[in-house]
Amino acid sequence: MTRQLYWVVGGDYADTEFTQMVPGTEKVLGPFADEMKARKAWTQMTFNDRTCRNATRRYVIASGTTVLAA
Predict the structure, then answer these.
(1) Comparing C-alpha atoms, which of 56, 59, 46 is closest to residue 15?
(2) What's the pLDDT score for residue 48?
(3) What tens digit of pLDDT does each residue of 26-52 get?
(4) Which of 2, 8, 25, 56 could be cross-linked to 29 through a Cys-Cys bond (beta carbons 3.0 to 4.6 Å apart)?
(5) How many other β-carbons are positioned within 10 Å of the β-carbon of residue 17?
(6) Closest Cα partner for 46 from 25, 63, 60, 32?
(7) Which 8-state DSSP code applies to residue 50?
């Protein structure tokens, strides 16, 4: 049996190409049991960061599958 899990990951990037993250700014939230909870956390992180107007900060939702013991 498997279960899908979700994380919100991101941080500050060196520039607006978003190819290299600034060390020490990484953030990971989760795991979340469903995508809607992850989306709520993503919305909160994105909204909070818009108040500080940082154009080089980005968050995404990542997902993965875990195998549960029978």
Answers:
(1) 56
(2) 75
(3) 999 999 999 999 999 999 988 775 556
(4) 8
(5) 8
(6) 60
(7) H
Q: Which amino acid is at 61?
A: I
Structure pTM? 0.83
Amino acid type, 31: P
Whether omega for the bond prior to residue 23 falls within 30 degrees of 0, making it cis, is no
Would you list the DSSP string of 25-47?
--EEEEEESSHHHHHHHHHHHHH
pLDDT reported for residue 55: 84
Which H/E stretch holds residue 57? Answer: strand 57-67
How many residues would you count in the chain?
A: 70
